[in-house]
Design goal:
By secondary structure, this protein is an alpha+beta fold. It is built from 13 helices and 15 strands. It is globular and about 70 Å long.
Length: 420
């Protein structure tokens, strides 16, 4: 009888040791059927206080989750591929990752970051790639605008996104093509009314104040992600603090004489020594942008993600996680950054060698960090004003959109000091 009890105990222990204890969300090219929604599952787990490990460079940057029935069900509902691991299999993966010979690392994600998206209240004649992918991945966010920023509500958030914005007060430089179009007229009137309500005599002054509040948010420890024209117009607004760079059709009076020589590049996050575009009818802010300077045919328009040491440089490694290092190019008002105007202390994450241009960069400002990603929509090569939004159900494995979601999860990580 005693012998039978021992056998039963042994069988129980053996079955327990082989029990599934972990869920792996593989992020390689061939296994994961919906890369974008896998980020949503990861965020959902964090929001429910599950601990998650981001396995940098392991099968495309996979996620390791604890095994739970509700997580399995959520993966099945959202169409996310997952694998069940035993304790032994999980341990073998972590041992492989920890080997000094492997350029991999396991990073603990601790809490779901609170996300704010800077966007005006009314409907825009263009879409926002980040809002699109957050909605598709089912990651919650709060829309905010100038009122919230100027009343210090950024303190409530960990992560702030800016997309197709103009912080210079020039209404996106749409004057030549759209000044007589109803949406442009309505936006200009609304912007002037809002600036007046907030106590500013000019839109450019109000937008400059917003840019400085966002700067302070980052310096205080926040994380900012910007795309398209929000990247260069933000830095231009900081460089032009207290300087009138707007012509009369934008703010009612001429620009300040010799304003170019008065710019303070020390104020900017990423760019230096740029020259502003003076012509109001030119759809361009400065020579930071490569749109008019590039000569790359669409079929050859790709940029390459840089490779970093996952163990020594986990921050850029997180931001570059993907199932491919070659990303399809896409245009925008700010299509790419001229290498000559990128500050030396800024880390280039993605670049196009054909044209010596930067597409994706990262930097630190005070206690916080920022990432700039050029272009408008990663799955629409030349998105025009008024074009319908991209249907992400057609692009569930988009490597270009994955870069956005890397930035969304980045603030959840327990960060280590960067070596690069």
């Amino acid at each position: 009888m005693c012998f039978k009890k021992i056998i039963l105990v042994l069988l129980f222990l053996i079955s327990f040791s082989g029990k599934a204890s972990y869920i792996l969300l593989p992020m390689d090219e061939t296994t994961q059927q919906n890369h974008l929604k896998a980020y949503g599952i990861t965020y959902w787990c964090l929001d429910k206080s599950y601990k998650v490990n981001w396995l940098l460079n392991y099968r495309g940057g996979s996620f390791l989750l604890p095994d739970a029935d509700e997580i399995r069900k959520e993966c099945q509902i959202r169409g996310v591929s997952f694998e069940i691991l035993s304790d032994g299999e999980q341990e073998a993966i972590l041992n492989e990752i920890s080997s000094p010979s492997q350029n991999m690392e396991s990073v603990l994600l601790e809490k779901a970051p609170k996300i704010a998206v800077y966007t005006p209240k009314g409907k825009q004649p263009w879409d926002d790639a980040v809002t699109l992918v957050l909605t598709y991945a089912e990651i919650p966010f709060t829309p905010i605008y100038d009122q919230e920023v100027l009343s210090d509500q950024l303190l409530l958030y960990d992560w702030l996104h800016l997309h197709h914005e103009d912080f210079t007060g020039q209404y996106g430089k749409f004057y030549a093509a759209y000044r007589n179009v109803p949406w442009y007229i309505e936006q200009k009137v609304a912007a002037e009314k809002l600036a007046e309500q907030l106590g500013f005599s000019k839109v450019s002054q109000e937008k400059g104040a917003v840019a400085k509040k966002i700067r302070d948010f980052v310096i205080g420890g926040g994380f900012m992600f910007a795309m398209c024209s929000a990247t260069d117009s933000f830095d231009i607004a900081l460089a032009a603090d207290g300087i009138d760079i707007c012509e009369a059709m934008f703010d009612g009076d001429p620009s300040e004489p010799s304003y170019q020589s008065k710019l303070n590049y020390d104020n900017t996050f990423a760019f230096k020594n740029f020259t502003l575009e003076r012509k109001p009818e030119q759809y361009e802010f400065s020579d930071i942008d490569m749109t008019s300077k590039r000569q790359i045919p669409p079929d050859k328009d790709y940029f390459t993600l840089m490779e970093f040491s996952a163990k020594w440089d986990p921050i850029p490694s997180m931001l570059c996680q993907n199932h491919t290092q070659l990303i399809k190019g896409f245009m925008g008002q700010t299509t790419a950054f001229d290498t000559n105007f990128v500050k030396s202390n800024v880390l280039v994450l993605g670049s196009c060698e054909l044209n010596s241009e930067v597409r994706y960069l990262h930097g630190q400002k005070g206690k916080g960090m920022f990432s700039f990603y050029s272009g408008h929509d990663p799955e629409d090569f030349q998105h025009q004003v008024g074009d319908p939004p991209t249907v992400l159900d057609l692009h569930p494995n988009s490597p270009g959109y994955r870069l956005i979601l890397n930035n969304v999860l980045f603030p959840a990580a327990k960060k280590k000091k960067q070596k690069t």
